[in-house]
Amino acid sequence: MPFEIPADLDPALAPLAFLIGDWAGVGLGQYPTIEDFRFGQEVGFSYVPGKSFLDYESRSWLIDENGQKVRPLAREHGYWRPQPDRTLEVVLTHPTGIVEVWHGTLDDAKIELTTDAVARTATAKDYCAGHRLYGLVKGDLYWTFDMAAMGKELQNHLAAQLKRVRA
Hints:
The chain is mainly beta and 167 residues long. 0% of the residues lie in helices and 66% in strands. The chain has strands spanning 21-31, 34-47, 54-63, 69-82, 87-94, 98-107, 110-120, 127-137, 140-149, 155-166. Strands 1-2-3-4-5-6-7-8-9-10 form a ten-stranded antiparallel barrel. A hairpin with a 2-residue loop joins strand 8 and strand 9. The mean pLDDT is 96. It holds the Pfam family THAP4_heme-bd. Residues 13-164 form the THAP4-like heme-binding domain. Its EC number is 5.99.-.-. GO terms for molecular function: heme binding; metal ion binding; peroxynitrite isomerase activity. It is an enzyme of class 5 (isomerase).
C-alpha cells in the first residue's frame, strides 16, 4: 500500500513518517514461564498536526491454528517522541498496571528501543526490562520484543510481521 508523508506533518516527525497508519498481522510468543503461542495484532500510529509526537496503540489476541481469535491478550498505548539527534523517547502504558519509558535510536527504517524505566502497580506481573526492534522490510513492519520478567534474564518473548492496512 503506497504511503506519502502528510503535508501537515510536523517536520520533527519526518524520520518516523513511515510508521503512520494502521498495521495488522500475526506473530509468535514464547517465554520460559508459558507455552508458546500465536497471536494476531493490530497497531496504529497517528499524529496531531503541529505536534511533534506520534500517538501509538496496539492490541493483540491469541489465535488458534486456523488464525481465528480465541481471546484478547495485550493492549498498550503511548507516545513516540523523536529527538533532533535521531534518538527516540517512547512512553507506553498497559491496562495491566505497567508504565514504561523507552529510549532508543532511529536509523532510516530501523528502530531500536530499550527500557529506561518500568513502573508497576502492586498487582502487575513481575516485569523489569525490555528491548524492542522495529524495521520496515519490503513494505512490512517487523518487530521483536525481548523481556526480563518473572525472575528470568532478558530474552525473546514476541515477534511479528505486520502489513500496512491503511496509510
